Amino acid sequence: MNNLKGYTLVEVLIVMTLFSVISLLSLSFLNTSVSSSIGISSKSKLLNELSLLSELLKDDLFHVAKQYPRADEFNQFPTFFKLDNDFREGEPILELVRNSASDGIEDQGAINKIHYKVKDNVLYRNYSSYLNSAYQERPFALVSEIEDIEIKALYDKNEYLIWPPFNEADIEIYPTLLEVNIIFNEGNFKKIFFISGDDVVG
């Protein structure tokens, strides 16, 4: 006759306890992995947004054109380069006029108005098809989750938060460098851009 021997209650409890501990550790590791993946994905998205902003702004500033938009009821003294860090929600912080690339037929492409504005913590870029035409209905969202933004115009060893400085003669020039500072919840972005284009002064 075979002498069968089963597991005791103590042995079963020990096995169940070990299984529970292993399960909890596995679940904790999984949660950590998911959180890390979300964090990496979020930072990757932000890096892509900042990279796109850098490329677009660099290209805009490289093609600044000294062309004046037509005056209207809202802007009696338009300029081809305007910076205003005292902007209100939804108003442009940076406006400029630029030459677009040639279409291959004409030597020079169209002249466009460009503006950058912040609304609901998102930085948008918008443009007009021609110098005196209206802006596009839907601006392009560039960078999201912005806590604060400051753009400085650098000219002749001075910094300006508003351009042109309060002098009619300054309407004829634009700064040589632009420093962009964007603050996020977990860090900040800072970059200096060179301004080129037609008839650079300074």
Explain how this protein is built.
This protein has about 200 residues and is of the alpha+beta class. Helix content is about 25%, strand content about 30%. It has one helix spanning about 10-60, and strands at about 80-85, 90-100, 110-120, 120-125, 140-145, 150-155, 160, 160-165, 175-185, 185-195.
The neighbouring-strand order within the major sheet is 5-4-3-2-1-8
- Helical content stands at 25-40%
Mean pLDDT: 80
Strand content: 25-35%
Distance between the termini: 106 Å
* Biggest sheet character: 6 strands, antiparallel
Strands, helices and their partners?
Blueprint: H1 9-62, E1 81-84, E2 92-99, E3 111-119, E4 122-127, E5 140-143, E6 148-155, E7 158-160, E8 162-163, E9 177-184, E10 187-194
Antiparallel strand pairs: 1-2, 1-8, 2-3, 3-4, 4-5, 6-7, 6-9, 9-10
Question: What's this, in brief?
Answer:
This protein is α+β, with helices and mostly antiparallel strands.
Q: What structural keywords apply?
A:
6-stranded antiparallel β-sheet, 27% helix, 202 residues, alpha+beta, 4-stranded antiparallel β-sheet, 10 strands, 1 helix
